[in-house]
Amino acid sequence: MSETETSHDDKSCVPADSPTLDNSSSCTQMEHVSLAPLSRVAICGGTHGNEMTGVYIVKEMQRKKVKAAGSLYVTPVLTNPRAVEVCRRYTDKDLNRCFTDALLSSPVTDSAPYELRRAQELNAQLGPKGGKEAVDLLVDLHNTTANMGLCLIFYSLDWLTLHLLKYMQNKISSVPVRAIQLDIPLSDAYSLEVVGKHGFAIEVGPQPHGVLRADIFNVAKKAVDLTLEFIQEFNAGRTFEGGEVEAFTLVKSIDYPRDSSGEITAAIHPELQDNDFQLLRSGDPLFLSFSGETVIHEGEDLYPFFINECAYYEKKVAFQLARKTTYSFPSVSVEKD
């Protein structure tokens, strides 16, 4: 995504005649945009079987037989039931890395990883990815062990997503509400939310894996309720005014220091721990080695997130770094017949 530096932050406008951001666009006058109504929404949980908030939000929706919310047909989906049953992130393969075009179209057999077969089942049920028959909006619920508050994570930034982010920011005050954008082509986008016409993950933390916290559950449940509330009001004809929101765009991942055998030799520095989304400047501490030496950040000032995420040790990621961008978006309302 093309960006213009403004101090540590960037500011982008997007074309008023497009529902999605265009990487090559210059700033233009924001005009009102009409979008198609959204009639089908999937609320998904348990993509990672030990992230308990989404598991129990979906189970509660299924228990109450939630199928409709005003103008919406709502489908609650427990996405990785085998992993949920054993309370593990996954059984064979990380399901939330199985939704690239290549993996969704690959031939599978009974000996293929369970999560790869499950990804294709979900794509058939809720998609297909990029298809006209896909659900209008897919929301996938996750937990992180990092101190990230409530985050919406998405690939393409469309008008609907930006409006939902702003709506949640105006309605939720108990935790910070932020957005993370993964600047990856749709064909290579790997997580479940890309199956819907619109989609995002909701990431809430800190919460240990395999543990359910009421405060974290309530924040995620509020975000789900606000999403459905927004869409009902949108479908009913309300005009939502334009505005601005910030998003953190992933730049790179940082691994732990390691020795020649691949063993970790340092932990996250105490001054960095729990300081997700706080600007990291050159010279700031990153790691504290087991022998007591400090490893500092060198280079561009960036924003860290997923700091010391438990599930990312296996991926050799200590934290990720992002740039902050401000996006302008137009007013929107539903298309009239």
UniProtKB/TrEMBL annotation:
The active site is at E203. Coiled coil: none annotated. GO terms for molecular function: aminoacylase activity; hydrolase activity, acting on ester bonds; metal ion binding. It catalyses: an N-acetyl-L-cysteine-S-conjugate + H2O = an S-substituted L-cysteine + acetate; an N-acyl-aromatic L-alpha-amino acid + H2O = an aromatic L-alpha-amino acid + a carboxylate. GO terms for cellular component: apical plasma membrane; cytosol. Residues 1-26 are annotated as: Disordered. Binds 1 zinc ion per subunit. Belongs to the AspA/AstE family. Aspartoacylase subfamily. NCBIfam families: PRK02259.1. This is N-acyl-aromatic-L-amino acid amidohydrolase.
